[in-house]
Amino acid sequence: MRRLVCSAVAVLAALLTAALAGPASAVPNAHHLQNGAGGLPCLGIHNSSPRSGVAVVGPCNLSSPTQQWTPVPKQAADGTVYFAFVTSNAFCLGVTGASQSIGATVVLGACTFDHSQLWREEQGRGWFTLRNYHSGLCAEAGPPVIVQEPCGGTARRSWRYLG
Predict the structure, then answer these.
(1) Is there a contact between 82 and 120 (Cβ–Cβ < 8 Å)?
(2) Which positions ≥6 away from 140 have C-beta within 8 Å?
(3) Closest CA to 98 of 140, 67, 136
(4) Are 35 and 43 in contact (CB under 8 A)?
(5) Can you tell me the distance from the alpha carbon of 62 to that of 22, in angstroms, rounded to the nearest whole number?
(6) Where are the domains of the chain?
(7) Are 159 and 124 in contact (CB under 8 A)?
(8) pLDDT at 48 (0 to 100)
(9) Which H, E and C letters describe 100-154, residue by residue?
């Protein structure tokens, strides 16, 4: 547990240093997450707040810091690798209130790396679904709000990296 906390602190410190040093595009391994829904929108934050807010999809803007995400790998006790999706300002994508309910909103908040902020990429035909560790449900583009729903083959639950 101590190793996990130390590694989380080191990752957050590196991301904060990069964020303070320059624009979000300077953050290493930052990507856009494009959704398979009509128009192929990108994952972003409502009201352009890079610190908190509701996760939404909208037109992809490759220069927008509110649409840039760094996947930080975390290994579960069973060996499965999950990812915390971190913004350039070191905030994480998670499920509101650590809810396990269908339809719960996906939000941005302070990184705690708890199970509600960890996501598994499940591959399929060049796209992947994002399954939440805590709930077992998948991120779906509402649109525009991102919610968690049962996993299954729909374009609104399909994601891929850009950039």
Answers:
(1) yes
(2) 146, 147, 148, 149, 154, 156, 157
(3) 136
(4) yes
(5) 16
(6) 2-162
(7) no
(8) 52
(9) CCCCCEEEEEECCCCHHHCEEEEEECCEEEEEECCCCCEEEECCCEEEEECCCCC
Write down the pTM of the prediction.
0.78
Phi, psi of 145 (to 5 degrees): -75, 145
Q: Taking Cα atoms as reference points, which of 56, 65, 107 lies closest to residue 87?
A: 65
Q: Name, of 18-32, 37-51, 65-79, 130-144, the range with top average pLDDT.
A: 130-144
- Residue whose C-alpha is closest to residue 43's, from 16, 64, 26: 64
Type of residue at 32 = H
Q: Give the closest residue to 37 by CA, choosing from 134, 117, 141.
A: 141
2-162 maps to which CATH number? Answer: 2.80.10.50
